[in-house]
Amino acid sequence: MPAGSKAGSAAPSDHETDPKLSPIEEAKRKAAYRAVEEHFPPNAQYVGIGSGSTVVYVVEAIAAMGPSVTSKIIFVPTGFQSRELIVEAGLPLGAIDSLVPLSSPKKKMGPGAVRVATGRQDLGLEGERVMLDVAFDGADEVDEDLNCIKGGGACLFQEKLVATSAKKFVCVADSRKSQPRLLSKWPTVPIEIVPPSAPTVLRTLKLLGSQGPYLRLGGAAKAGPIVTDNGNFIVDAPFAPLLLASDIRDEQQRQGLHEARRGSVAQPPPEGRWEVVALAKRLREIVGVVETGIFAGRNGDEAGDEGGGQKPVAAYFGLEGGDVIVQRAGEKAR
User: Fold this and answer.
1) Helix (H) or strand (E) segment spanning residue 315
2) What pLDDT shows up at residue 6?
3) Which of 67, 169, 237, 252 is deepest in the core (most CB within 10 A)?
4) What pTM value is reported for the model?
């Protein structure tokens, strides 16, 4: 049994094929089972559950372990959809803002409780909270350095909050999501914004080289913009395919990357193509932006106890033929 496996869990090759699923859905299902098999910690206490169609199979794989395992674990969702998945699977539900302190609180109501009650201290800031043991989530696109774009389902802020609160983030998707560079196939960077800031954000995005950024609308199901679980809007910003740091060759481009990372440029770097980390940083500096759908920088293993890793430590891609390709940090996909 691979490291991290649980007694009672089904190996990826052991689960029965569902004849009702399309080849691509069955591929996503196999990828989910393998990801859970290889990354679900033996003594997990807190597990993050993401959003999207692939995560349905992650929850299925976890629930297949049985109550003897899952009843001892708290599952933390990234939004409404994943919350409903957790509840429907009969898994214990938690919340990202309700993780327990690292040290047990005193049983008696002491001065600390008085300070909280009277507003002289913010709730929960005296001590650190536990980290999630692992977070499983999907992605809209993943590049060869495991940078991701997320937010197609409008849950990007809570997805990033959960990912950065976990010791490691594991991505599960179908093979169509694996691309050499971000924005190769996926057309835009999703950005969550405070509603009154929409005109300012859209204007600034155009200055940064985005061709035709737009406010995401609800379509026939809703008049007006999509509203996130946090009461915000989503802007979708098209950019040219994003570069990796390793793509930056000549001195002029390197200077553009340096300046962009410092946030001191209003225009796109030379050749109009942003490096992924530089663009993520620059977008966050726009007034009104809550969070972006670019998951870049460090992963959980690299961040360590400090936390805040955004990139997955591994991505599992299901192929229509039934195989699963695994891309791990620092390795080529295989």
Assistant:
1) strand 314-318
2) 44
3) 169
4) 0.85
Which stretches of 50-133 are assigned E, i.e. beta strand?
74-77
- Residue for token pair 């049994």: 1
What pLDDT shows up at residue 231?
95
Mean pLDDT of the chain: 86
Query: Residue 236: CB partners within 8 Å, gap ≥ 6?
Result: 187, 188, 189, 190, 191, 213, 214, 216
Q: Which long-range contacts (CB under 8 A, 24 or more apart) does 200-206 make?
A: 200/286, 200/287, 200/288, 201/235, 201/286, 201/288, 201/289, 202/235, 204/286, 205/235, 205/237, 205/283, 205/286
- 89-110 pLDDT per residue, tens: 999 999 999 888 876 555 555 5
From 159, 192, 275, 291, the catalytic residue: 159
pLDDT at 115: 58
Q: Which residues of 143-177 are buried (b: 16+ CB within 10 A; e: fewer)?
A: bebbbbbbbbbbbbbbbbbbbbbbbbbbbbbbbeb
